[in-house]
Amino acid sequence: MSGATEIDVLLARAADGSITPGEIEALIVACGRDPGVLTELREHLAMERMLLFDGGSRGVPEGFTREILAKIAGSEIADEAFTPRVLGRIDVRVISFPRRIAAIAAVLVLSVGAWMFWKTEREVPIVASVTGSEAAVDFEGKTDYLAGQVLVLDSGFVRLRFKKGAEMILEGPARLEFSGDNGAVLKSGSASVHVPESATGFTLVGPDAKVIDVGTEFAMKVSPDRPTEVHVIDGLILTSTSEGVGEREMRKDQAIKVVDGKAREIDAKPGHFVNALPVRKKDPIGFLHWSFDEREGSEAAGAGPGISGIKSPAFLRSPDGGGRGPIHADGVFGAGIFLNGEGAFVETDFPGIGGSGARSVAMWVRVPGDWQPENGYAMASWGSFEKLGAAWQISVNPGDFGGEIGHLRVGTNQDYVVGNTDLRDGRWHHIAAVMYAGRNATAATHVLLYVDGKLETAEVKSTRSIDTDIKSESAVKLQLGKNLGTALGLIQEKNFFRGWIDEVLVADEALSQEQVRRLMKKNRLD
C-alpha cells in the first residue's frame, strides 16, 4: 500500500477484519483526535452488518449490542476500562469472518462513540469560577459552575469571576443562579460586581429588578423581608423593575429600592457592600501575645515574634497611680485579669498598626450581666481622636446610636461596624476583629468580626476611610480597658471597661476564620 498512512492501514485492516486488539485501541485514539477518521471508518464498513448480528455459541452473545448502547447512555462512559472489557467479550479466534468484522466494527464505532460522548459531556462550558472565599459556611466548595447551577452560601463571602471578566463578591446568606458567562440571578443575599470593558452588558437579575451594566461597579441586595436595593458605586448602569416602564439610567452615588414593583430613590450606601477579600501574606505572621498568666505583679510578659521588630510587655495600671488596678483572676487558658471599670487598665509600648494596614486583634472577654453602657469603652485601642478615621477601638457597644447595645463594636472615630451577638451574659467569649488592607478601606468593607469563631452578621456599618494614627504626638499606644477619648480630655468620667480579659493577641495580618478558630481552641496560630 504505497504512500498509505498509518491511519489508512488501520482503516483497511478494520474493513477486512484483520485488525488486532492493539490496533483497535490505536484507531479509537485516532478517531478521538480527529472526528474525520471516524467518518472514514463508517464509509469503509457496511453499518447494517456491524450492529445487526444474531447470537450463537460461536458468535457474539445475544443482546451484546444493546448492552454496549446501554453503557454509552449510562454512567460507565468515562470508565477507561470500558473498551478493554468490550474487547474481552469478543473471541476473535472463534468468530467467523463476517461476524468478526461486525464485532470489531461494533467495538470501534460504539467505543469511539462512547469516548466522543464523554468528551462532549466534559466540555460543557464553565461560565464562572470561585477565586476566593472567607468564612464561607454551607458553601459546597465547588470551583467551577455551569449555566443553570446554583451557589448556596449560608454566611461569609465568596469571590467569583465570570468567563467574560466580571468579578463578584457574594455575601451570605445568599443564593445565586448562573444564567451564563456574563450574567446571574440573585435570589437572595448581597452582591457587589465590578465589570471591566470586556464584560460590558453583564446582567444581574433580582426578584423584581434587573441591572444591565455598561462598564462600572454596582451592588444589589435581595432579602425576603426587605425591598430589593440597587446601588451604583461607579459608572453607569441600566435598571428596570417588574412594574416599571422601560429602562432607566443610574450613575455613581445613585440608589433605588423596589417597592411593589416600582423604583424609589434612596441614599446610596456603596460602602455597605464588601468589594474585596483578604490577600494572605506568604511571610510568617508577626504578632504579640499577652497571656496574663503571672497571677501576681504589675507586669505581664509579651510573647510572639513581635511586629516590625517591636516587642513589649503589658503594664497593669491603677487610676492616676492610686486605687485598684487590674486584678489577677482565672482565665480561659491559665490566668487572666479583671478590670473594674473605675480606672484599672493595661498599657504597652506597642504603637499599634497604622494607616490602612492589615491587622487582627483577638482575645477572650467576659462581660458581666450587670454591665452598664458607661463600661463599654474600650477593650483594646490605639491611635488618635484628633482626626476622623484615625482611631482603632474595640468595644462592647455602649449605645444604640451605632447598632445594638452590648454587641461587639469596632470604631475608628465616626466610622464603625457592629456585630449581632450580645456579649452581656457573664460567660467567656472569644472575639476577633480582622481588618484587611485594600483600596478605600472602611469598617464596612474591610473589617470582619468574629464571636466564638463565627463570622458576625454586621448590623450597622459606616463608610469613612480608615487611616489609623500611630505617629502624631496625640497617638496612644496599645492599651486595654481605657477609652482613647480620655487622652484628649474628650471623656470626663466612666471611661473604662468592666469585665474580664484573657489571651490578647495582635497580628499584622488579616487572620482567616480557620486561624481565628485555632486561636480559640488551641491558643496558638500554628
Count of alpha/pi helices = 9
Structural class: alpha+beta
CATH architecture of the largest domain: Sandwich
Overall mean pLDDT score?
80
As for the CATH topology of the largest domain, it is Jelly Rolls
Helix fraction, binned, reads 10-25%
**Major pleated sheet:** 14 strands, mixed
Number of domains: 3
Strand residues, percent:
35-45%
Write structural notes for this entry.
The protein is α+β, with helices and mostly antiparallel strands. It has 3 domains: 6-122, no CATH class; 126-272, Jelly Rolls (Sandwich), CATH 2.60.120.1440; 287-522, Jelly Rolls (Sandwich). 18% of the residues lie in helices and 36% in strands. The chain has 9 helices and 32 strands. The strands form 3 sheets. Strands 1, 2, 3, 4, 5, 6, 7, 8, 9, 10, 11, 12, 13 and 14 form a 14-stranded mixed beta sheet that branches. β11 (236-241) and β12 form a beta hairpin. α1 (6-16) packs parallel to α3 (35-44), α2 (21-33) packs across α3 and α5 packs parallel to α7 (97-122). The radius of gyration is 33 Å and the shape is globular. It starts with 5 loop residues before the first helix and ends with a helix.
